[in-house]
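Figure S7 source data.
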Amino acid sequence: MRIIAIDGPAGSGKSTVGRHLAARLGLRYLDTGAMYRSVAFAALRLGIDPDDARRIADLVPGLEIIVGDVVLVDGVDATLEIRGPEVTRAVSAVAANPEVRTEMVRRQKEWAQAHGGGVIEGRDIGTVVFPDAELKVYLTASETERARRRSQEATDLHYETVAADIARRDLVDSTRAVSPLATADDAIVIDTTGRTVDEIVDELSSKL
Ligand code: DC
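Tokens for the predicted 2'-deoxycytidine-5'-monophosphate complex:
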């Protein structure tokens, strides 16, 4: 099984680099953030408070989540809504829930088995989910650049709102008790600020 793990904070370029690298290597690509976002989406739809750890944990085992170009949560197309401001606000609390993480990690391993590996991106992929990955990558970018990228994607939000949200999520994601965002000791660290996708994909391919 060939696993490439990509971790890093919001807006660091994980998805863009991950998709291109997967295409170059002929591997499948998995965005694990979309899985945590799907849980937050389901909770909001059902009126469950994202901070209600017990109810969120009870929701997860029976939840069908299919992550691809289209994201389906219990058969509902959540592709656009999981990127919206409500889910983005709710997702850190959901992702800090240990029972949610255990179940998502189980599903990520199952996905990799089913697809013969893949390029998998998230926050804990190289540190916790696939510590034996063939290649571990940790992407970063300056705070300004990360907020600029995300505010270009969300044209209805002001740069300041996006920047504040990213800073809040960085803090929650990197200080939570279970699987905080961290750099694996053996990860290749790349600052993507001002660099092209092709350059980075070339650099990573040369390490394989
Ligand atoms: O990459 P993203 O912004 O779509 O991730 C959404 C949230 O999910 C983010 O705040 C952190 C969390 N996450 C996580 O805790 N572990 C992962 N493997 C992926 C995402």
